[in-house]
Write a structure and sequence with these properties.
The chain is built from 7 helices and 12 strands. By secondary structure, the chain is α/β, with parallel strands linked by helices.
Length: about 260
């Protein structure tokens, strides 16, 4: 059976698609533990990063726009006998009654801001929720022009991984088109459910847009939002593990940004 749904409508499928994305979690948890105060995770979803933070003893709260994701997160917290304040809000426009030592936006979620006004609004809201001496921490991939040259709408296999939801595998197939003027990429994603026999027994059609950001542009965005100091480090690539690698930034890296207000 085939059906179409908004990208984030099904937390269980989202978890299954990204079951192999674990290398960044220890980095985010370590950053949260070293913050020395409360932590707010923006675009927390159903807890891929937030739950490990809480299990590590971090005083963390979560914010997300999706009711479905937050409902799934509440169930997962209850199963683990964990507690956290959760907020249903847009990252571009939120106002909480608490300030934080660390505000974090993992897994390139910041790139769902599709205009510069949206990006600056999000960064400004983050800055306004920081305690004195606090910092913003976000990850976002840096564009790779060689890779993007192939974004012509042609379908290609991204990965095939074990299926958490049923016996067999999940086959993730993307067709990406690019708008280089607006710095946007549109992804049409087909997720196929493959039985152990190799037969495709179902599929989901998903779609989403991202606005990619070059390093110098991100620096200007941070300055426009009121930050006075920042640094960017490369994150481990898929298949790598451990701390951020000690090397220059490369095109296609996922960058870990830290920003402060002096």
């Amino acid at each position: 059976m085939n059906d179409t749904a908004p990208y984030y409508a099904d937390p269980a499928l989202y978890d299954a698609i990204y079951a192999d994305m674990v290398a960044d979690v220890p980095i985010h948890v370590g950053d949260a533990k070293s913050a020395g105060g409360p932590v707010l995770e923006i675009a927390c979803g159903d807890g891929r990063v937030l739950i490990p933070m809480l299990e590590a003893g971090v005083d963390a709260e979560g914010l997300d726009l999706s009711d479905d994701m937050l409902a799934a997160l509440r169930r997962r917290l209850a199963e683990r006998r964990l507690a956290a304040r959760l907020h249903r809000a847009d990252m571009r426009d939120f106002a909480l009654d608490r300030r934080f030592a660390l505000v974090t936006i993992p897994f390139s979620a910041f790139l769902h801001n599709l205009t510069q006004n949206d990006q600056i609004a999000t960064l400004t809201r983050c800055r306004e929720h920081l305690l004195p001496g606090g910092r913003l921490h976000l990850s976002a991939f840096h564009p790779d022009p060689k890779l993007m040259a192939g974004f012509d709408g042609t379908s290609h296999l991204v990965k095939e991984i074990p299926n958490r939801l049923a016996p067999g595998t999940l086959r993730v197939i993307d067709a990406v088109t690019l708008d280089p003027v607006e710095q946007r990429q549109h992804v049409e994603r087909r997720v196929e459910f493959v039985a152990p026999s190799g037969e495709v027994v179902g599929a989901r059609e998903l779609r989403f847009d991202l606005r990619y950001v070059y390093k110098p542009e991100m620096e200007l965005l941070l300055r426009a939002a009121g930050f006075t100091r920042w640094e960017a480090l490369p994150m481990p690539r898929i298949g790598e593990s451990g701390p951020p690698p000690d090397r220059p930034i490369r095109e296609g890296d996922s960058l870990l940004w830290h920003a402060w207000v002096d």
